[in-house]
Fold:
Amino acid sequence: MKVLMLNGSPKARGNTGLALEEIGKQLEREGVEYEIFQLGGAPVRDCIGCGQCTEAGCVFDDDGVNAFIAKAKEADGFVFGTPVYYAHPSGRILSFLDRVFFSSSELFAHKPGAAVAIARRAGTTASFDVLNKYFGISEMPVAGSTYWNIAHGRRPGEVELDEEGLRTMRNLARNLAWMLKCFEAGDRAGIPRPETEEGPATNFIR
Ligand SMILES: Cc1cc2nc3c(=O)[nH]c(=O)nc-3n(C[C@H](O)[C@H](O)[C@H](O)COP(=O)(O)O)c2cc1C
Structure:
């Protein structure tokens, strides 16, 4: 079992990266592998709604989106972490995830996910809510913790001082690992993952 995490900060080991590492360490204690995919500081395109999505994901292949999609095919669960910028998730993680989900949301169905938001002071729950929207529209069960999945820090490393924040990350990892084990046990017992009913999209009501 493997959890694929996404760090929406340009800093690999800033506060968001460290919070994800805390989740990863606990996942390993629970017997679950993890990988943290780093967005880094390179430019990330927005989705332009061109509808040219391919089997591999996005038609634009000059950033990490399609590499992430390839890894998502093999992953059993997900954690998306973001620093808070002006009370919302980083622009880069939204541009990235819009293209991942617009082209490949079916890869995520029936696999659990969790969002994490890190701030100096404010905007965490709004950012957490935004990232959770990807899960709700993609048939993804959401893992919870003992608080909303937030922690605080300004300069890189300060999140290590947020005792409750790190405990929230560890409890999130425990719950996510438990969900993954339950789903795997269900698969082994022959309980199929649910079928999805397809139909026309009704964009307005007459
Ligand atoms: C452009 C920008 C906007 C920010 N806006 C907020 C904000 O609205 N609220 C807040 O509490 N912190 C804000 N911060 C601080 C970061 O959320 C905080 O430093 C966080 O720990 C950075 O995470 P990182 O080290 O993973 O990049 C902002 C930082 C930047 C660079």
